[in-house]
Amino acid sequence: MADLFVRVPNARTSPAEQALLLTRLLDTRRATTWKGIKLELSVIAAACTQLRAGIPLSDIDSQRMLSTSERITAAREVFRGR
User: Fold this and answer.
1) Of 50, 42, 32, 29, which Cα lies nearest the Cα of 68?
2) What is the model's pTM?
């Protein structure tokens, strides 16, 4: 239930509470990011399987691999706390 009513820092929030809220926010972002990374890794695995079978990637598949690379790069920034 607490997730439905997320506390936000205000003028009366202590520094310790602010740190706790920031930690919770980052943990949530990281958990969501892990789910996205799992999806992108499955796309990479499918492309690897196709290439290993000797089937070249189509233009659409190549574009998807580029977008996968960009998404994984963006995910790295989440784990750096940015």
Assistant:
1) 42
2) 0.64
